[in-house]
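Deliverable D5.2: sample structural annotation.
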Amino acid sequence: MRPSTSRGARGIVLLYHRVADSLPDSHGLCVSPRSFATQAAYIAATCQAMRLEQLIEGGLADDLPSRAVAMTFDDGYQDSLAAFEILAGFDIPATLFMTSAQLDRPEAFHYWWDVLEWAVLTPGVAGGDIRIQLPDGAQTFQLGSKSDRATAHRALHSALLPLDADARDHAMAPVYELRETLRPSLPRRMSGRELREAALNPGIEVGLHTEHHLFLPAHPAARQQREVASNLDALEGLLGVGISTLAYPFGAWAPETADIAAALGVTLAVTTAYGSVGGQTDRLSVPRVDVAATTASLEEQLGSLFTGTVPD
């Protein structure tokens, strides 16, 4: 390690998506349950765990305890529930950022990227190729080799990412048909009932993550406004509490996006930009540290940030 040109951080917001042993994990979303338990114990022993808004307020006022950490979870995966039980054992609070599409329906909800990952990267699921109707025309993607599947997955994910929910679902129709036919075991989002039960935990706060998890800057202002407003209405109606925090889906935002969120009553929004919290942090573009996005251990990541050093 070598010294950084900036002093060490005082406050860090950690980002998790899934706590599970899951392969493939092409998007780097998973932290194993065993690793997570070790990380929670480490945070409890060496850091000051705080609620998200408390940490941001302290950072802006330059009034944070040493090694202040806030835990956040995006997407509301069902496997987060076991993680919350682990956190409760250490009295560590967390914020869960939740989408709301189909939250009132009884059937399991799977995010499109998880279905795509399964169908395209698992050998033999879709045969030798798959034909997808994209907005600029139908395309056939070869899936015969591992390299073919990886190339197809990258191309399809990139093509689907900026679409609205209807266009995306239309393009994904052949993939969803495979899911309905083969009935694989896929990671799912927690149900409305499970969310209500999780929110009863005094250490868990719920924030917005939009209705359909769209890449917001790719859409007109009116669509961005509907995504946040409908999410706000659904979650406040389900939980019976006011909500004023937001995690931008995919960490993607623009000044227009932040203005829309603020107009709807959002007072704090988090991104996926890497960094720490301090006196100059923008409340509507708070950086986080994505724990699963690097091969470095949590101890190494926190040690680097808190001491103001960077890897050699």
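Annotation notes: The CA atoms of residues 134 and 184 lie 25 Å apart. The radius of gyration is 20 Å.
The annotation will be released with the project's public dataset once the embargo ends.
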